[in-house]
Amino acid sequence: MSSALDYHDKSTKLSPLVIKFQVSLDLDVPSTIPTSIPEPVQAFFVSVSSPAEILSSKLVSRVKGTDVIKGGYNFVHILNLDIGESHPFPFVLRFPIDPDSISRSQTCTAVGCMLYCQRHPDLNIPTPAIYAYSCTHGSEFIAMEYIDGDALSDVWLDIPEGEKEDIINQIAEVMRSMRTKTSFHTMGGISPDGSACPLVDGMDDRAGEVLVESFGLYNTGPYKSVREYLQAVLDRRYHYLDQMLHKGTLPAKCKEEMSKLFSHSTLEEVLERVKRLREKFKANPYDRKYPFVLRHGDLHGRNVLVSRSSPRRILGIIDWDFGGSHALPFADSGFELAYPDSDRDTNERIKQAEELQDSELLLDRVVGQPCSSDAKLKYWMTSTRSYVLDFEAAPVVLSTTDTQHGRYADARTRAISSPI
């Protein structure tokens, strides 16, 4: 199947995968099941079409000692499939906590990015094999390979010092591979068949934004240029506020939650600032061109699985919901290894933070900067952030220890120094 998105070297060998269409799932989305798994397992996953159907099957049971994991967007179950052999077949089932609170392309992109990595083994980015999935809104799910490993965030502080640099280098190689070995024609998400789909973008002030996304009021991608993407960023915030304040299409809680983000402005004042920004951008000649490369979009220690024994090695990169093809300046750069444990005493938390900061600095040195600085791009990308929109009405902040950690001061400095 040809791809409008994939511009990868076509001489690359494809991994041994068999494409099967599941009538019970999306007809336009092929299911990819590795031929290496037992035929009864293949038959089971071909037959299922929803997470409820999987969980209610008499062949499925929870792996002993595991609980349901509730992440930021999804429930995750670690399950066994009894196929009548001496050992059950373990797998992971993931589905949205609330389908209406996530982008319509989130599951699609998560599956598509993992399959993309598997179809291009030269990238050397390990991802879980996909057994079954549905990208249909309201019944999304992914059934995938269970990787027997540790989340890097859980074990980082216990890894011997001599192995930490090696892990950092492995992560850096993944990031470098995404930047230098991939190239795409457009900026957007990746569907399971390799074609382009709407971009799943990280959203500031999330409540209700995914509802507006589904209204079709602005371009959700894929985008042909960075300028087209920046226009969509401004349009998204404008329509979100307009729908909230004037159209009455969003729940009242959205207005309440967003109002709390502004200390010095009303939502109507903020909307007027966004309107001015949109007009300012339309008159601006910004047209910088950048390569479009693969990005994970949520790359941190909780989404990196490593082997349980030494020497530690990366076994899988998971949770590609915000991945896809992005302009080079948006490539993964920083890497958060873990949050300091808030349950420990203050001295221990400070020690953790110092250790993690040292490792983040090492990672930056290994990977290097993605490209030269682009002040105009940075300006437009931050212009609709809540703390920036609020700064116009805020008093000048001279200290970086205020409640916003100096963000008003930073925003004011950026706006004044911006060449736009």
TrEMBL record:
GO terms for molecular function: kinase activity. Pfam families: APH. Keywords: Kinase, Transferase. It comes from the Eukaryota. InterPro entries: AGP_Transferase, Aminoglycoside_PTrfase, Kinase-like_dom_sf. Residues 122-324 form the Aminoglycoside phosphotransferase domain. PANTHER family: AMINOGLYCOSIDE PHOSPHOTRANSFERASE DOMAIN-CONTAINING PROTEIN, AMINOGLYCOSIDE PHOSPHOTRANSFERASE-RELATED-RELATED. This is Kinase-like domain-containing protein.
